[in-house]
Amino acid sequence: MSVTFISTLLVILVPMYLYHRTSCRSKNPAELPTNWPILHMFPSLMANLHNIYDYFTLVLAGSGHNFRAHGPPGMGMRFFITCDPANARHIFTTNYTNFPKGAEFAVIFDIMDGSLFTIDGEPCRRQRAKVKSMLSSPRMVASMAVYLREKVKKSLLPFLTQMACIGTSFDMKELMSRFMFDTAATPLFGVDPGLLSSDMLPMDVAVALDTVMEVGFFRLMMPTFCWKSLRRLNIGPERKLGIACTVLRLFIGEMMEKRTINTCCVGHVKDKEGVDIISSFLEDPHYADNDLLHAIIISYMLAARDTVGTTLTWIFYNLAQNPNIVSRIRNELSPIASRKVVVGVGTMVLFEPDETKSLVYLTATLYETLRLYPPGPVLRKTVAVDDIMPSGHKVHAGDTIFISLYSMGRMRALWGKDCLHYKPDRWISDDGNNLRYVPSHKFLAFNSGQRICLGKDIAIMQMKTIVAAVVWNFDVKVLEGQSIKPKPSIILEMENGLIVQLKKREM
């Protein structure tokens, strides 16, 4: 039996074993990668796949913020992993064109091929310009703010009030996922899918989006032939992805049908302008292809739902552990709340997006959460031409680069000895009136350079509005005995959810 055959067999079977045996994960701390014969560092990476972001952090901290990893010969697994801000600036700004996402990335995320998530060059510039014009439209921003306010008032707060009154625990992660799903889909289609009001029944379409990110992560870490073999056999994670794709296509078709009916019933196209994002793409011949339109829709849903929904879950988890931070947020909200007329016992106080826009400490709390729990924990790039990093490391054409945002927020050399502490004050100026400036190549939660997040301001507005409403009106308690950890995915979701109980504040 040849060495090539043995290595190929191991490359296929080891990931499958690790993927399915999640209940037998090692509890020993991660070790530095071992360079094994033939398979090189592949077994070490696979053994730590379940906690890969903490593993990267451990290795990066012990290797000066940069290290190389490679797998079996001929598998194309040549990685350069970094959390060095100077390298990040070089990759995202100084020599941006030399570090595209690359063709392999588009193949890995084929369900979103052609969307901003996967493309480079002129197609990326053209699509970004289109999305930027929509998301910067005053009418679009205003309509999204109005919808958010109404959704918080009529759906989120009533649900939380009910949970507080009956003392029932619930999964905050699932709630935020449902809420942000509706909040993302409504301006896209002009129709509210109503996931939040479906009595917390199973949500197939949201699970399908989660599957896209989980299997995408699996593909990123595997040799290409490995996951393609699983896809041909239609087994394991590839079978799950196939089912998820079918669910998403059916959902998009259903929403497009509802959108058409809704538009016809309204009868005034101009009244819908600036509210229905998909109309702008339908009217553009560049996006006439149905598969491309589906890819753009799925990419938008993942960006709009997952980044905010995931961050909100981590915010509420950290606030529950830090009542002093909750008190300071309430003190900042108090002058606004005192100006509101509250009618009736138990009436909720709602904060308008414009009212929370200038709140420094609330913003600092969001940034501190994003520092430690970036929704996109790792960014991936490909090297087009041989280059030398500012750190002195050489990278070669075809190498894959992983920039670990998760690790960057946990480096003592970058954030100090208290880098693992949840401390919003690190973002506030000495006079307490302004936010400190931190360059985007050190704080990459919203990306950097030509890939800077187009929805940053909208995402911050959404998070501030939701956090202010929940924190002011309720005390949140995380139930003890939970295992709080991120799951292996492109998105830094909590693997086991976040079970909480609420108590209505007495004011």
UniProtKB/TrEMBL annotation:
Xref: Pfam families: p450 (PF00067)
Domain of life: Eukaryota
Coiled-coil ranges per UniProt: none
Keyword Hydrolase applies: no
Keywords: Heme, Iron, Membrane, Metal-binding, Monooxygenase, Oxidoreductase, Transmembrane, Transmembrane helix
An example Gene Ontology molecular-function term: oxidoreductase activity, acting on paired donors, with incorporation or reduction of molecular oxygen
Family indicated by similarity: Belongs to the cytochrome P450 family.
Name of this protein: Predicted protein
